[in-house]
Structure formats: structure tokens, C-alpha cells
Amino acid sequence: MTSAGATLPVPVATPRRAALRARLAEFLLVGGATLVLFPLAWLARRAVGLDAAELAIGFLTFHAASVINDPHFAVTYLLFYKDARRRAFGGAFAPAQRARYLLAGLLVPAALLAWAIGALSTGSARSMGFMIQLMFLLVGWHYVKQGFGVLTVLSARRGFRFGPLERKVILAHCFAAWAYAWASPADPGREVEEKGVVYTSLAHPPALEPVTGLAFGLSALALLWVLARRWRVERRPPPLAPLAGFLITIWLWTVYSSLDRLMVYVIPALHSVQYLYFVWLMKRNEARDAEGPPLFGRPTGLRLGLLAATAVGLGWVVFRGAPALLDSAHGAHGALVLSSSGGEAMSDLGPTPYFAAVYVFVNIHHYFMDNVIWRRENPETAYLLRQDDRGGATG
Fold it and tell me: What does pTM read for this prediction?
């Protein structure tokens, strides 16, 4: 028996333990899971062989794309075109940001749509091939810029801010990685296939690979120098999760993405999870503001759930439903035009030409929209730096 004034200890998670769990989850979400998946991929090859492992992982990632990769593209449209009229023609954005918005929201999609329609109507695999190669050129830019955001934003959330010189060196490393990843391996101009489209790739000059490789190596040394310099001055390294997410994005997802054949299938999903984590951070904090006074809006969980469901549904329509409908109609009624002026058969565009066109269009447009959404000039990005004051974890 205990006295009336005595209390029994209740096992509760300490704020420190909750914070550590939040940091571990963040580490995994922004890229750290890559370090776990590499040994798992090796074990899968050892257990069942490369062919069986590749088939299983390819099947898994294809279907997982419906709830990871496709929504990551779709949610960009939901973020970008929200309150579009006020952003494009009202006072939501400053003039420079408004110009970026109009470029990414009107001019870029109009140009891409005209390009895709021209390629489809003429059956030109060559024209579609140029569009695909633009996508591959820009995807590296998109990856490294996202890695830069991981490092700078998450570090700022922990009170660690990079100076102007450090930011320039980090960006230099990003762009050097982008250039080296695009130039490597050397390409004399080959016939390749992507999403059913057969085209000849643009040749890279032989000297491009070693020159960009040297620039990448020098930029890595410069990055090491500025980090060491910061350590000497403050005895404080950058936070682990942001730095790891950055380096994994640059080195393992961009430059050496083909290091493991099985991981090639997984990297786009990891990139999408990293992206969706930042969407969650921003929209969660925005929803919490709207939930409280003076607005007293919908509960945060409901708002986030509706956003997620809408992104999944829109992703399915854009990447599965609409292209499948168009391609099935195309297959049933024959090619729009049997041959182009250059003599290319419509069959060079493969059995799913509309899927190829939609896929490339959305990828390229996604890169441009992101360049508007995730800028400090967008007032909504201020929510990224808002700390979590519910439960003690700082995120």
C-alpha cells in the first residue's frame, strides 16, 4: 500500500528520447535509408541471384510508384497552382517571383505542350528523343538543387546557417556534380530506348567527362575546406542528417547512381520520399496555423490527409489513367500520321507514345515549378523553418 500522497512512476518517453526518434526518422527520410538499402540489395543478390532480385525489385518499385513517385509529381501541381490568379496577377508575389511564376506556370508548359504535340502528330521519334534528353539533362539539376535544400533548410531548423562563401562552395559542388553526372559515361551517340521511344542520343565530346570529373573533384576539396574552416572557427560541424542527406543525394543518387544495379530502381522512390518530407513539413505547419485562432479551420490531420489523397488520385490520372486511355485509343485506330517528313515510322515512338509524352512533359515541368515553389521569395517556405512545438521534438 502507498500513502495517499505518493505517486507511481508512469513510463513516458522523455522529450530527449522523442527528439532522437524524430531525428532518426528524418535522417532515414531525407536519404539515410539509402545506406540501409545498399546492403539489403547485396543480400538479395546473394540470396536469389541478380535476375530474380532485379525482377522482384522492379515489380515492387513499379507498383509503389503509384503512392510515392507519382504523387510526388502531382503534389507539385497542387502546390504551384494554388491561388494561381493572385500569384500570377495579384500581390501574392514580388515582381521577380511573379515573373518566375508566369514563366514556369504558363510559358514553359505551353512550349512543352507544343513540342509534344508536334512530335506525336508527325510520329517523330527524333523530336521526342530531344525532349527526353532535355529531361535527362535537367533531372541532375533537380536532384542537386533538392540536395542543397536538404542541407540548408534542415541545418537552419537546427540553428546552423551557412555563410555566403559556404553557400557558393556548396552550390559549386552541386553544379559540378550535375555536369559530371551528365557527361559520364562518355557517349559517342547511340541508339537508345526510353518509354518505348527509340532515338539516337546526342554525342558528348570525349574531353567532357574528364574535364567535368576534375571540376567535381576540385569542388569536393573546396567543400571539405569550407567545412573544416567552419569547424576550426566554431568547433561545430553541420548537423548530421542534413549533411548526410546532401552527400547521399549528390554522390549516390546523382553521380554514382549506377553503382548498384538494383538501387537504380529504388533511387527515384528515395528522392520522392525526400521531396514529400519537405511538403509535409511545410503543409503541416501551415495547416496548424489555419487550425488555430482566428481561422479555426479544418484539423491538421484532415487537411494533410486530403492533400495526400488528392495527390495520389491526380498522380494516377496523370501517369496511369489518361495515358493508358490515349494509348489504347491510338492502338485501336492506328497511328495519327503514318510517317513523318523524315521518313520515321510512328512505330518508332513505341506502343505507348502518349505515356512517353506525358511522362517527359511532367518531369520537365516539375523541375521548373520546383524552382519557383522552393525559393525564399515564396512566403509559404517560411513554414519550413517553423519548429514543432507539439511533443517536444524539434524535427
Answer: 0.90
